[in-house]
Amino acid sequence: MSERAWSFSDSMAAAVEKAGSPVELTRDLGVGQFTKVPDEITNWIEEQRSWRETVAFADQSYHMTDHYVEGPDALELYSDVAVNNFDNTEPGKAKQLVVANPNGKHIGDAIWFHLDDETFLSVGSRPAHNWLQYQIETGEYDVTGEIQGRPVATGDDPNNFRFQVQGPEAIDVMKEVADDPLPDLGFFNFDSISIEGHEVHLLRHGMAGEAGFEFWGPYDISDEIKEIVMDAGEEYGIEHLGAESYQTPNAILGWIPLVVPAIFDEGMEEYLEWLDVGDGLLSIGGSYESDDITDYYFTPIELGYGHIIDFDHDFIGKEALEAEIDDPARQKVTLVWDPEDVVDVFASLFREGETYQFMDFPHPRSAACPYDTVLKNGEQVGVSTDKSYIYNERDFISLAVIDTEYSEPGTEVSLIWGDPEDNDNKRVERHTQKEITATVANAPYSEDKR
Predict the structure, then answer these.
(1) Which end of the chain is more exposed for a tag (fewer CB within 10 A), N or C?
(2) Residue-wise pLDDT tens digits, 241-274
(3) φ and ψ at 339, to 5 degrees?
(4) How far is Cα 412 from Cα 338, in angstroms, rounded to an integer?
């Protein structure tokens, strides 16, 4: 393995120059610690079953960044930068915030909350927040912005705890813990409730297609609130999700949590000088390889966000997305992996000779941004990304972006499992790659009961 030429104190621009290219910078770095929550609380199968059969509790307090924005020009900022419509927003509304670069390529997304008249919060991965903060610091907006990094990475306590309850019994559990009747909330609306005299915010939400809530409040009461909810949920069969099972519903929902942010394009040089590499680096792994970082980019439309793009306002990337919206070249789909091929990955461990890359259930990945090559008749037609085994479906599935002509459900394709055999990723053992048959299905994969 070659010695790393760059350091985490560099700007992104300096790190790219020292590494030689964006791909050389980001390839084979492995995966950092996801959260402080243990991988399993009971076991991942029972934890997965809970969101379908009873109720699941998830602790989201440690793995996301928070971006606080306040000021009279805040909505103008969001409208200029994000693809969303902000015309009729008011306190108590939430939405999925999506931002793109000037060429219409996806940078990132987050869940956005309208807290008060001029006060806003977005919660999610770092790329979208970095881009917004850059606009604040280099633009002429009368706003302030502050990013709280991932607590698991910084070692700091979160500002807030953030919990979810999901599943058929989720509403009954929240009725049990609330001091007063629950507010009648529409999807992605939130309000304040009281739990044992503590005020918390309650968002009508859902994961894995099941009904549920997300709620948050001051971190210093997190242990007390968690105990109250878990005690109330005991009679309903509540399960606390570990880090592994928590990450798996994304594949069912059709949401790709991390992709390579489109920040290395021409015209982004000043942003890369502004951005610290330690705040903006996401690793690339998987079987797909290209020396051109732009081959790893997606557009918001390809990722399934076309329905939230509002073309009645000017925003960064509008012209490119307007040209794409009616005839996208690629589409997001679910790939259902052939079970016999998946079993053969494990079977190789019991045979003489080369073995295939170990598939760590239920959520295997060798990098923050996993990219696997998807083939049709031996030709590449797309890339597969986040993947999981789902016990409730008895399927191993992944989310992929593939050429539109092959996106019809039922279409048979194949994908290459295993990082390149000459990789430098310390998390990946010596192995040989395997071609796995897969069938195209809809994304989201399961019925939406939210």
Answers:
(1) N
(2) 999 999 999 999 999 999 999 999 999 999 999 9
(3) -65, -35
(4) 10
